[in-house]
């Protein structure tokens, strides 16, 4: 091969590979490569999409918004998020209706520090398109009560306060891998109440998803990936309430090499989004 021709062919392939470099790839639960349209098509056929995220990942927050926009073109939506707590629902509703502005919402609700950059676009999309946005999480002070004193401490809440959590008694299976692993990773610190506090969040989020679902609609729920990984957490509680409910789950993982799914990430969700470790964090 002539040197000049070789140079041009080599340059073409180098340029092509550089052009194809991506910050993320999508796989199915068996490690087979999937794509964005697979998520859109699968999500249209179910009742709930549990979008498991890394809270500080810029690519995931972008994908959440884009997937929501594209699904809105195809199906009636209800949106909800771990990042908003149930006792703030009235404030969220007032914002959605234009009765209060962002500054007022900031002062009334316990918004996460990264709310404006990462979750406000989703809430604003709901506002612009008259979509319900549900604050699904247990108030953090009640999860703290469970962590300190167990589930029984929730019995002491007032009737009004109990309306912001899953119905009591909260069912709990400490043998579920996610909860048992939590104790192992903490080396026993936090005791048996640590996974119970996690379960109080999972059960409450599942409760408000179920309560606010609409017929022939898709409920998209944004939550930390740990809350729905391995079809546990929120997914488990939703299935306990309604074994017939149809759910698609998305998990987020980070890898140095995103070209293939690492074995430990198989089976985490229907779709696993693998993010390059170098992707910019939002905080």
Provide a descriptive summary of the structure in words:
The chain has 283 residues and is an alpha/beta fold. Helices cover 43% and strands 18% of the residues. The chain has an 8-stranded mixed sheet. The N and C termini lie far apart (51 Å).
Which regions contain 5 or more consecutive residues with pLDDT less than 50?
Answer: 1-18
Distance between the termini: 51 Å
Number of H/I helices: 11
SS strand fraction: 15-25%
Biggest sheet details: 8 strands, mixed
Q: Quick check: average pLDDT?
A: 92
What percentage of residues falls in helices of 4 or more residues?
40-55%
* Secondary-structure element string: HEEHEHEHHHEHHHHEHEE
Compute the gyration radius: what is it?
A: 21 Å
Shape: globular
Lateral arrangement of strands in the main beta sheet: 2-1-8-7-3-6-4-5
Structural class category = alpha/beta
Number of strands: 8
In short:
With 283 residues, the protein is of the alpha/beta class. The chain has helices at 3-20, 36-43, 58-72, 89-96, 102-108, 115-128, 140-149, 159-162, 177-185, 193-212, 234-241; strands at 24-28, 33-34, 48-53, 76-85, 133-137, 217-224, 247-255, 271-276.
Question: What's the SSE blueprint?
Answer:
Elements: H1 3-20, E1 24-28, E2 33-34, H2 36-43, E3 48-53, H3 58-72, E4 76-85, H4 89-96, H5 102-108, H6 115-128, E5 133-137, H7 140-149, H8 159-162, H9 177-185, H10 193-212, E6 217-224, H11 234-241, E7 247-255, E8 271-276
Parallel strand pairs: 3-6, 3-7, 4-5, 4-6, 7-8
Antiparallel strand pairs: 1-2, 1-8
């Amino acid at each position: 091969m002539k040197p000049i021709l070789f140079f041009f062919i080599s340059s073409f392939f180098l340029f092509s590979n550089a052009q194809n470099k991506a910050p993320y790839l999508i796989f199915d639960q068996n490690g087979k490569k999937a794509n964005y349209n697979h998520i859109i098509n699968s999500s249209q056929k179910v009742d709930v999409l549990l979008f498991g995220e890394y809270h500080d990942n810029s690519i995931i927050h972008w994908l959440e918004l884009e997937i929501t926009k594209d699904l809105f073109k195809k199906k009636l939506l209800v949106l909800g998020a771990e990042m908003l707590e149930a006792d703030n629902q009235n404030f969220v509703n007032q914002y959605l209706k234009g009765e209060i502005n962002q500054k007022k919402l900031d002062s009334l609700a316990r918004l996460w520090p990264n709310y404006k950059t990462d979750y406000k676009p989703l809430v604003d999309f709901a506002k612009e398109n008259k979509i319900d946005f549900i604050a699904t999480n247990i108030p953090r002070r009640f999860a703290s009560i469970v962590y300190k004193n167990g589930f029984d401490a929730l019995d002491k809440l007032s009737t009004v306060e109990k309306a912001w959590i899953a119905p009591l008694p909260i069912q709990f299976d400490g043998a579920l891998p996610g909860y048992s692993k939590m104790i192992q990773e903490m080396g026993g610190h936090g005791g048996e109440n640590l996974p119970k506090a996690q379960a109080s969040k999972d059960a409450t989020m599942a409760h408000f998803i179920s309560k606010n679902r609409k017929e022939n609609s898709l409920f998209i729920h944004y939550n930390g990936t740990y809350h729905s990984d391995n079809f546990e957490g929120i997914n488990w509680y939703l299935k306990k309430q309604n074994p017939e409910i149809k759910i698609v789950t998305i998990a987020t993982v980070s890898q140095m090499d995103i070209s293939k799914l690492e074995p430990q990430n198989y089976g985490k969700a229907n779709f696993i989004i693998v993010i390059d470790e170098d992707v910019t964090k939002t905080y």
